[in-house]
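FORM 12-B: Structure-to-Sequence Request
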């Protein structure tokens, strides 16, 4: 303190300024180091991001423009609408499952065309279809609830008699009839089935000659077996 008192006022002021500069410098250094580390970290992150962007692959433009894709979607939607309308139209032409009126119309058509019906019976799909349905039931036994077996679509390897069996997607009542008559009458009968109020599909057709030899001048009588989907 004695030494400090011997100093002149200007020297004391200079020493005080020097001390303040040292104190403020040390404080600033302590504040700057963390900030500098943060800045350095941000700069490194920015450089890493820039390198990733340079290496990133920019996807190619689509081969088709948006308008063309929209046009294709519109075409597909119109096609689906058309298919739906056709399905609705076909469904409206199908007779009710338990309707007897269509069977009566078929019999009446045979009488009108002078074709004699010797057999007329309802049939169902064959055993393979039932076997497939049973297999599907067994596969569902592990679940909490067995799903309904309705609308099972059998593979195309099965005949239409099987694919139209009960509990299948294309189920329709099947009617087996045997006809006896001349060729022209039987052909007319088959053609006129298309003109009935409801759709009738010939699923199976077998034709054979009658064992009886016709009289001279008369056409050979034919025996025909038809399976109709009503």
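FORM 12-B RESPONSE
SEQUENCE OUT:
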């Amino acid at each position: 303190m004695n030494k400090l008192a011997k100093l002149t006022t200007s020297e004391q002021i200079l020493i005080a300024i020097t001390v303040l500069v040292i104190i403020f410098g040390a404080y600033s250094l302590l504040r700057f180091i963390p900030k500098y580390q943060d800045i350095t970290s941000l700069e490194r992150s920015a450089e890493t991001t820039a390198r990733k962007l340079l290496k990133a692959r920019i996807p190619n433009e689509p081969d088709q423009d948006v308008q063309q894709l929209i046009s294709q979607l519109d075409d597909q939607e119109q096609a689906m609408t058309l298919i739906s309308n056709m399905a609705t139209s076909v469904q409206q032409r199908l007779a009710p499952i338990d309707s007897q009126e269509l069977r009566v119309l078929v019999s009446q058509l045979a009488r009108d065309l002078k074709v004699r019906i010797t057999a007329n019976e309802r049939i169902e799909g064959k055993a393979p279809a039932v076997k497939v349905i049973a297999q599907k039931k067994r596969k569902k036994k592990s679940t909490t609830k067995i799903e309904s077996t309705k609308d099972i679509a059998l593979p195309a390897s099965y005949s239409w008699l099987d694919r139209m069996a009960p509990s299948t997607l294309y189920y329709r009542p099947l009617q087996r009839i045997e006809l006896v008559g001349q060729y022209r009458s039987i052909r007319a009968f088959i053609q006129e089935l298309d003109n009935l109020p409801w759709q009738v599909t010939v699923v199976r057709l077998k034709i054979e000659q009658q064992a009886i030899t016709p009289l001279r001048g008369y056409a050979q009588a034919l025996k025909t077996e038809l399976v109709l989907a009503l």
